[in-house]
Automatic annotation (TrEMBL):
<feature type="domain" description="FAS1">
    <location>
        <begin position="32"/>
        <end position="163"/>
    </location>
</feature>
<dbReference type="InterPro" id="IPR036378">
    <property type="entry name" value="FAS1_dom_sf"/>
</dbReference>
<feature type="domain" description="FAS1">
    <location>
        <begin position="1"/>
        <end position="28"/>
    </location>
</feature>
<dbReference type="GO" id="GO:0005615">
    <property type="term" value="C:extracellular space"/>
</dbReference>
<dbReference type="GO" id="GO:0050839">
    <property type="term" value="F:cell adhesion molecule binding"/>
</dbReference>
<protein>
    <submittedName>
        <fullName>BGH3 protein</fullName>
    </submittedName>
</protein>
<dbReference type="GO" id="GO:0030198">
    <property type="term" value="P:extracellular matrix organization"/>
</dbReference>
<dbReference type="GO" id="GO:0031012">
    <property type="term" value="C:extracellular matrix"/>
</dbReference>
<dbReference type="Pfam" id="PF02469">
    <property type="entry name" value="Fasciclin"/>
</dbReference>
<dbReference type="GO" id="GO:0007155">
    <property type="term" value="P:cell adhesion"/>
</dbReference>
<dbReference type="InterPro" id="IPR000782">
    <property type="entry name" value="FAS1_domain"/>
</dbReference>
<dbReference type="InterPro" id="IPR050904">
    <property type="entry name" value="Adhesion/Biosynth-related"/>
</dbReference>
Length: 197
């Protein structure tokens, strides 16, 4: 699947006497803002803006290159427990891992993403892309709220749920999501849960 500034290529290689015509399905608008400038001007990305500034990722997101930012909205940050959010925001390493887990190494327009694709993040982890009806899914969840916001150095998709990598979780949070959740309960009963958090 070929896209031109996120417009899908419908018919290619119509040869004319003075060149070639490719038919696309959208009008291509002028793109002037970098990914960082989009974050700075979009009201629904206020929490992300603060997180990016705290982790010194500003320079990356305004540099030349081709990235995809899966931008968590304010709503996405509000969905996770306040205690967990404060812990991540207060831990520079966990915060950087969290944000890098939302950045892909290449620019991927929604039209060009094929279901069943595995995409690598800057953190080195992977995200599985699928579909639910006409909606794209990330790791099985249809969380893309707004797609294909074009930037001079890539593309932004707004997501309404935070994608937290294992490296940004405590032992307790990891255990709760795994096959050792009963062991976690035993630690808590024994008054040892603080060691896991």
């Amino acid at each position: 699947i070929v896209t031109v500034n996120c417009a899908r290529l419908l018919k290619a290689d119509h040869h004319a006497t003075n060149g070639v015509v490719h038919v696309i399905d959208k009008v291509i608008a002028t793109t002037t803002n970098s990914i960082q400038q989009i974050i700075e001007t979009e009201e629904s990305l206020e929490t992300l803006r603060a997180a990016v500034a705290a982790s010194d990722l500003n320079s990356l997101l305004e540099s030349e290159g081709q990235y995809t930012l899966l931008a968590p909205t304010n709503e996405a940050f509000e969905k996770i427990p306040r205690e967990t959010l404060n812990r991540i925001l207060g831990d520079p390493e966990a915060l950087r891992d969290l944000l890098n887990h939302h950045i892909l190494k290449t620019a991927m327009c929604a039209e060009a993403i094929i279901a069943g694709l595995t995409m690598e993040t800057l953190e080195g982890t992977t995200l599985d892309v699928g579909c639910s009806g006409e909606e794209l899914t990330l790791n099985g969840k249809a969380i893309i709220a707004n797609k294909d916001i074009l930037a001079t150095n890539g593309v932004v998709h707004f997501v309404n749920e935070l994608l937290i990598p294992d490296s940004a979780k405590t032992l307790f949070e990891l255990a709760q999501e795994s096959e050792v959740s009963k062991s976690t309960d035993l630690f808590r009963q024994a008054g040892l849960s603080s060691h896991l958090t």
